[in-house]
């Protein structure tokens, strides 16, 4: 399995609640509407920070984890016309593209 982890920070002028609403209710349905997402994504998890007294403020507004069977499947999604013309351009509406971070990895489960 291949796992893509993405860290996202909201665009300037947007509150965390506005960011979360947009990601959940506009961007995520847009992504899931393209056939390639249904075909290639095996698991999809989005994590949002919660209040955590005595811990530093989070650097990001969400962390996205997406699993694929192979690197070819990951590439098939992110280089398809539907992604490039429909999904990817939407990121500018809610993401600070200058703070975007990602890693493509293989998981090593330590506990569980």
From TrEMBL:
InterPro entries: Dimeric_a/b-barrel, EthD_dom. Residues 11-97 form the EthD domain. Pfam families: EthD. This is EthD domain-containing protein. It comes from Streptomyces cellulosae. The lineage of its organism: Bacteria, Bacillati, Actinomycetota, Actinomycetes, Kitasatosporales.
């Amino acid at each position: 399995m291949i796992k893509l982890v993405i860290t996202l920070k909201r665009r300037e002028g947007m509150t965390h609640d506005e960011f979360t609403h947009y990601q959940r209710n506009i961007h995520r349905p847009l992504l899931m509407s393209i056939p390639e997402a249904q075909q290639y994504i095996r698991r999809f998890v989005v994590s949002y920070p919660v209040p955590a007294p005595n811990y530093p403020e989070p650097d990001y507004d969400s962390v996205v984890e997406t699993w694929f069977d192979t690197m070819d499947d990951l590439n098939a999604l992110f280089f398809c016309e539907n992604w490039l013309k429909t999904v990817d351009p939407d990121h500018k509406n809610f993401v600070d593209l200058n703070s975007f971070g990602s890693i493509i990895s293989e998981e090593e489960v330590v506990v569980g």
